[in-house]
């Protein structure tokens, strides 16, 4: 790439970022910009902070722990708590760093338990991806992050091999690990397209979870996402997710272009981030 092309690419990226912030500020979102370097007190690390630490670039200095931001939602939640920020809707943009990658994210957060307001944010993000970025969303995956927490014990959930086999959908290995008669094994014995009906019929205590998933599925179908399906066996990508979780894929991509879900902050909230 020559210097002229590189300059045009940089200008395009900056214009695109400004377009995102202007667009959502015009829709009533407060904007937030935080330092990429976060400071922690070892004695006050939350469970979510501890869960993210293995993926962070971190160092210690003069008794404090410092890390590069690896997740926007976690950083915003901590900022809101520290400074008692009362904004209901927040838009942001900026980099996140993990041990193996750097991504630039645009994102939206809403701090309300109102499901209509949460689904409106999802609709607005989908509309932005399609209309402003000209990206077609071909697949959406909906999951409920408390489903497996209901079917597995805390010990089973914490076991790395159990989580690995579930992620790989390795039924045979998982059956040896937790037992052939385990409800998760029973669920995995059915095709993915039939698992929601199986849960509703044989696990009535999880009916509410399926109904919640169906609601969010219907929203994405209305937004003309080509293929929308529910994943009964998804493990949360972040420990702070407590309810519905969503991944959006563009055509022929194996990594989601956008992902998010419901979490506690300390009450119900919803956020979705777009990877640029």
From TrEMBL:
Its EC number is 2.4.2.17. Keywords: Glycosyltransferase, Transferase. One of its GO terms (molecular function) is ATP phosphoribosyltransferase activity. Gene3D superfamilies: Bira Bifunctional Protein, Domain 2. It is an enzyme of class 2 (transferase). Pfam families: tRNA-synt_His. The keyword Acetylation does not apply. InterPro entries: aa-tRNA-synth_II/BPL/LPL (IPR045864), HisRS-like_core (IPR041715). Residues 18-271 form the Class II Histidinyl-tRNA synthetase (HisRS)-like catalytic core domain. This is ATP phosphoribosyltransferase regulatory subunit. It comes from Marinilactibacillus psychrotolerans 42ea. The lineage of its organism: Bacteria, Bacillati, Bacillota, Bacilli, Lactobacillales.
């Amino acid at each position: 790439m020559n210097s002229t092309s590189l300059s045009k690419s940089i200008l395009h990226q900056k214009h695109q970022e400004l377009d995102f912030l202007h667009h959502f500020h015009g829709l009533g979102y407060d904007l937030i910009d935080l330092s990429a370097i976060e400071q922690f007190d070892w004695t006050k690390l939350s469970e979510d902070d501890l869960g993210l630490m293995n993926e962070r670039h971190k160092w210690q200095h003069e008794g404090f722990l410092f890390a590069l931001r690896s997740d926007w939602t976690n950083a915003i939640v901590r900022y809101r708590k520290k400074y008692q920020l009362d904004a209901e809707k927040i838009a942001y943009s900026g980099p996140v760093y993990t041990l193996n990658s750097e991504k630039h994210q645009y994102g939206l957060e809403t701090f309300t338990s109102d499901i209509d307001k949460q689904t409106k944010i999802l609709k607005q993000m989908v509309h932005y991806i399609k209309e402003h970025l000209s990206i077609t969303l071909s697949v959406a995956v909906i999951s409920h992050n408390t489903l497996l927490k209901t079917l597995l014990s805390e010990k089973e959930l914490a076991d790395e091999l159990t989580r690995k086999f579930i992620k790989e959908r390795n039924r045979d290995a998982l059956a040896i690990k937790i037992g052939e008669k385990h409800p998760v094994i029973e669920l995995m014995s059915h095709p993915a397209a039939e698992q929601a009906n199986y849960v509703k019929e044989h696990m009535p205590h999880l009916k509410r979870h399926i109904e919640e998933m169906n609601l969010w599925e219907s929203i994405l179908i209305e937004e003309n996402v080509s293929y929308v399906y529910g994943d009964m066996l998804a493990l949360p990508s972040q420990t702070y997710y407590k309810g519905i979780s969503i991944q959006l894929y563009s055509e022929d991509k194996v990594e989601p272009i956008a992902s998010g879900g419901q979490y506690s902050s300390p009450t119900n909230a919803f956020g979705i981030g777009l990877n640029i």
